[in-house]
Amino acid sequence: MRLVTLAVLIPSWMALIDGTVVNVGLDTIAGNLGVSIDEASWISSIYVLAAVFVMPLTGWLAANVGRKRAFLYAIGCFTAGSLLCALCGSLPELVAMRFVQGVGGGLMLPLAMAALVDAYPAEDLPSAFKVYGASVMIGPAIGPALGGWILANATWPWIFLLNIPLGMLSLLFVSAVLPEQSERGERSAFDWTSLAIMVAGFSALQYVLQEGPRHQWFTSFDVTVAALVAVAALAIFVRIQLTAAVPFVDFRPLAIPSYSVAMLLALITGVGFTGIALIVPLYMQDVLRYGPDIAGFIMVPSALGTVIGTELSGRAAKLFPAPLVAGVSLALTAAGTLWFATLGDRAGFDSFLVPRFVQGIGVGLLYVPLNVLMMAQVPKRLVDAASGLGALIRQISAGFGFAILGSLVVQNRIAATSMTASRFRHVSLFDDAGFALLRRWFAAHGYANADATTLSFNVLQELVARAATSAAYSETFVIAALLFVVSIPCLALFLIVPRKARAA
Questions:
Q1: Are residues 329 and 363 in the same domain?
Q2: How far apart are CA 102 and CA 79, in angstroms?
Q3: Buried b (16+ CB within 10 A) or exposed e, 390-427
Q4: What does the pLDDT look like over 70-100, one tens digit per residue?
Q5: Nearest to 392 by CA among 232, 218, 202
Q6: Close Cβ partners of 379 (under 8 Å, ≥ 6 residues apart)
Q7: How many Å apart are CA 23 and CA 479, to the nearest integer?
Q8: 13 FRET partner, CA 20 to 30 A, in 71, 257, 328, 395?
């Protein structure tokens, strides 16, 4: 049994780590491919978006081709996608291959959980899930640290190339160890029409969220068309699912008030959690000029905090009401995020350790109470639908987190830069004290007046641009913190929603 757990853990680790491993390398990859950081953020968001698209496929694949074979296909797709990512020479190519990689990664995680259910007897499942859950929660947190180490010692394609031997090992291991599926379920045709409409809707919405700030939102024809496509496609998709005899995505759990409130919380906090994982490494590199290895290592305290928070949440759930535990979690996460907003453009490495640890504890504390609040009133006949829909919404929130907070950095940077324009006009009149001091310093060190003027202007321009960039990140951290603060009053809704026992 332990071999089965290890067999599903290795590909699960690969899928989870690759969801965040490139975050710390976006600056490097963007420079090598000749694109901006906000354009390069598609590399992260498309991976999550691909997972959203394929999650509804897992049940159909398990019933029609078998869980073990589907798992092997998913590992093969992920490994091939990793190789193709390493060979890419342009951003469109890399985004396309990350989508292929995300398809494999998105299939591996639910198939791994299903494989454990199939391999373990019912009485041993809780301990198996505990080991699996604790292991996979660390993956997203150590991804940036691993990515930073790779970039410090090799070129960016090695972020993807390291998956090749692990993928080959996983194929052999799963093939040899994983038992065949005990029950296939009823084979059926797949609803490819619903999948196509969902892909069109969420892809268009992701484009609006990610490209809107760069193109002044609805003043852009492309953004406006994408918004119309998103609204139309998602409206059609929801209507089809509500009227289908066997829906592609079952929305019936959303009729349960407590479940709907929990899903709203999961969506809002998911945007914040995922967005922070993206912008913290970028902030350290873009503003403070740390290398990718240091920027990646700073995510380790959050992994430690998450493990501790998860352990504490399980114990706290037995002693305190779930909304209270969730409220403490959100307050801690908001405090840690606001802490980042105060660091400015001269913070030392040690300034990041405590807020990242606090954020990690907040993330871990939310895991148990949110799931308790989500599933407490779901009748048994809807448990599978509720779990699947919850996983889908979490993935959607992750994709939106990359898009929304990444776009906010861009938008805030534009605003901060325009606010400093008058500063440069003032400097050009040679009546700025800092500018005059710099000119005297360069002149005292042997530079001619013309050279001293040019160098002084360049230095001051860099300092002001760096301060403007820092202000942009600080504003984004404040907005991220507000996502958690706004979520706290939502917990009060659990006190007024109808309480009813779970039906069979």
A1: yes
A2: 10
A3: bbbbbbbbbbbbbbbbbbbbbbbbeebeeeeeeeeeeb
A4: 888 889 999 999 999 999 888 899 999 999 9
A5: 202
A6: 502, 503, 504
A7: 20
A8: 328
* pTM for this prediction: 0.72
> In terms of domains, do 173 and 208 share one?
no
Which residues in the chain land under pLDDT 70? 1-2, 59, 117-141, 181-189, 213, 380, 383-385, 410-441, 445, 449-451, 453-465, 495-504
Query: What's the CA gap between 480 and 405, in Å, rounded?
Result: 8
328: which residues sit within 8 A by CB, 6+ positions away? 365
d(CA 330, CA 426): 44
Question: Cα separation of 327 and 362, whole Å?
Answer: 10
Other Cβ atoms within 10 Å of 498 Cβ, number: 8
| Whether residue 166 is found in the same domain as residue 240 | no
| Residue at a domain's end among 152, 172, 188 | 188
The count of structural domains within the chain is: 3
Helices (H), 298-382: 300-319, 322-341, 353-375
Shared domain check, 33 and 153: yes
Rounded Cα distance between 291 and 296, Å, is: 9
Return the DSSP state at 16.
Answer: H
How many Å apart are CA 318 and CA 212, to the nearest integer? 45
**Residue 49 exposed, middle or buried by CB count within 10 Å (0-12, 13-18, 19+):** buried
Give yes or no for a contact between 420 and 480, defined as CB atoms under 8 angstroms apart.
Answer: no
Question: Could you tell me where the DSSP H helices lie in 219-256?
Answer: 221-243
| Domain at 384, CATH number | 1.20.1250.20
The pLDDT of residue 463 = 66
* Residues 297 and 436 reside in one and the same domain: yes
Q: Which of 375, 168, 367, 401 is nearest to 278 (CA)?
A: 401
Domain extent for 6 = 1-188
Sequence-distant (≥ 6) Cβ neighbours of residue 184 within 8 angstroms? 62, 63, 64, 66
Alpha carbon distance 385, 294 (integer Å): 42
Last residue of a domain, one of 188, 204, 228: 188
Q: Mark whether 132 and 174 lie in a shared domain.
A: yes
224 in the same domain as 328: no
Residue 160 and residue 220 in one domain: no
C-alpha distances in angstroms, 469 versus 285, 311, 340? 11, 37, 14
